Amino acid sequence: MKLSVKSALPKIAAAALMFAGHGAFCAANLVANGDFATGDFSGWTQFGNTDSTFVSGLLSQAWFGPANTAGGIHQTLATTPGLTYHVEFLLENSQNTPASNSYEVGWNGATIFSAIDAAVFSQTPFSTDIVASSTSTDLRFGFVNDGGYYRLSGISVAAVPAVPEPRHLVMLLAGLGLMATVGLNRPRRHA
Question: Which residues make up the CATH 2.60.120.260 domain(s) of the chain?
Answer without folding.
Answer: 27-160
